[in-house]
Structures are given as structure tokens and as C-alpha cells.
Design a protein that fits this description.
By secondary structure, this protein is of the alpha+beta class. The protein is 59% helix and 20% strand. The chain contains five helices and three strands, in the order βααββααα. The protein has a three-stranded mixed sheet. A hairpin with a 2-residue loop joins strand 2 and strand 3. The longest helix has 14 residues. It starts with 7 loop residues before the first strand and ends with a helix.
Length: 80
Amino acid sequence: MKVNTSNFVSITEANQNFSRIARMVDESGAVVILKNNTPRYLLIDFSSAEEEQTASDEDVLSVSRRLVAKNHEAYEVLAK
């Protein structure tokens, strides 16, 4: 996920102006909320969160194949 650095706001600003911060999310997709000048929270549209957390079966299968190939020797030892 790409985040525009102009969408960084302090936690105080987010608390005092939440409606404006929500509009920023609607316009740009995400806002990073800083706590003690450190990125701490990410505010995104709910539909984007669902998309980010759902992996397609093909993605899962691809990752599984890669891990099996990478750790083939360890699996052989464990199978004994």
C-alpha cells in the first residue's frame, strides 16, 4: 500500500478534526496518524481493509509452493 506523506496528521489533530481526517481518507485512500512524531496508526476505508486482508487462492498456493521448495530439506528430515 502506498501512503502519501502529505496525509500524515498528529493524533491531536485527528482527535480534534476527525471529520476532516475522514474526508482525507475518502479523497486519498489512507491517513497515517502520528503519535509522538512516529507513525502509529493507519486510517483506511473499510472496503480497502477487506481487500488487503483477502488473499486469492492462487496467491496462497503460490506462497505455499515457494515455502515448500525453500524448506524442502527440512521437510525431508521432519518426515523421517
